[in-house]
Amino acid sequence: MPRRLLPYLMSTIGLWILWTQMTGSALAIEKQPTAFIHANLIPMTTATVLFDHTVVVEGKQITVVGPSNDTEIPDNANVINCRNAFLMPGLSDMHMHLRYSWISDAWPVSPLKLYIANGVTTIRCFGPGGKTGKYGLNWQKDIDAGRLVGPSILTCGPMLGGHFKKDPEQIVIKQKYQRFDFIKIYSYVTKEEYHTILATAKKLNIYTAGHIPFQVGLDGVLAEGMDEIAHIEEFLWEFSDLDRQRYFENKEAWMAYAVQTTFDRFAPFLELNPQEKEQKLEVLVATILDKLKDRQIPVCTTLVVDDLIEQKLFYPEQFLRKPENRFLPAGYLDRFRKGKEKHQMQFKGGEVFAPFKYMLDKKLLVGLKKINIPLLLSTDAGTGRMGIVPGFSIHDELRILVENGFTPYEAIAAGTIVASGIVKRMNGQDDFGTIVPGKRADLILLQKNPLEDVANVRKISGVMAAGQWYDQKAIAEMLGN
Ligand SMILES: [Zn+2]
What we know:
By secondary structure, the chain is α/β, with parallel strands linked by helices. It has helices at about 5-30, 110-115, 135-145, 170-175, 190-205, 215-225, 250-265, 275-290, 305-315, 315-320, 330-335, 340-345, 355-370, 390-405, 410-415, 415-425, 470-480; strands at about 35-40, 50-60, 60-65, 80, 85-90, 90-95, 120-125, 150-155, 180-185, 205-210, 230, 300, 375, 445, 460-465, 470. It has one domain: Alpha-Beta Barrel (TIM Barrel). The strands form four sheets. Strands 1, 2, 3, 4, 5, 14, 15 and 16 form an eight-stranded mixed sheet that branches. The longest helix has 26 residues, at about 5-30. The chain is globular and about 70 Å long. Zinc ion binds next to loops.
């Protein structure tokens, strides 16, 4: 080697070493482990609390879980003392809707932050607004890279709503190619279109979920093998005398026909005394359960929708007093005060059916649970059109499940271990919902035991989403407090 090259080489090597040291140390900061010590751990693998446990997180993953006196903490760890506090997995909202307006001024605080602030670390979009819905996939990339604060996002593409301008087969192929997580099907798809969509999705091995289309009915849904039903309230149409051959060019007209036919069917029920009503409903619910038993088809709960409809129609002052409503998009509460909000319009003149529908949906919930249908914690929040506040509403959904016979453990399971098991059916990954090594580091630190009272899930001291820690101060800042 020529002598004059040596100093040049030495300095190059020197620079290289310096560079690796610099980037190495940058990575080390990013990868600094976190150790939650002395926690009352609720791993959600069983309905128990493991006292005085340590959880070590490295990168985005939980790496070690064990008794505090027997678990080593990495030297450089950020240690969070959890004495007297409870550590549970982050929750998921398994049916909600993304809107591009989330990252604009339309919302006082981005729902991505509202979710984090409420301990929701996974969201699954059942129909993004907009033409392509690709922003959901991009947000997931940005969140993953630390450029955006938010929960982990699973999303379908734009929903397949019927009245297609393009062959639905091509739409399914395109959405699979675009790497959406599943196909969402809506009420107005015809029987033939439904068959095409399901057959294509099966061929491409992409998960299908959605409404029970008016022309198809539950029997058709089960025969074609749709993977999941989008709401408990979808079963309502099964009790109606819908003419399933009918087709409407106009979606509003179709929905109006379905609603009117269902109202007509149930009008005589309203005359019954509570006991008779109860008995008749039990018989109806039994027909659904009969079809679903041994099926293991998951159903999203979304009962907070019914809860809010009742509040909005009969207790508007109470609804307006909800402190979290300040996070709804500008304009929503104005529409509400003018009586022009979605459900105010939909139930106009038929207000009495709202409590009846809620009663029926609660009976379905209880029945579905009894036959071990996987029930998924979900709120239908996100569109900004129904007064459902993203994140905050998950706590109402938990409350409703417990009011209807779930233990707090079972209610939380619907948004953790059960939810992750269903995501495994979608994409093969069962990577959240429990506190065990290998799972994504999605955690909520609580002041009180949520297994004693599910309302304690609201008492949040900190949230970790994919390894990123938000303490109480960070959460207050997110909410603008
Ligand atoms: Zn929805």
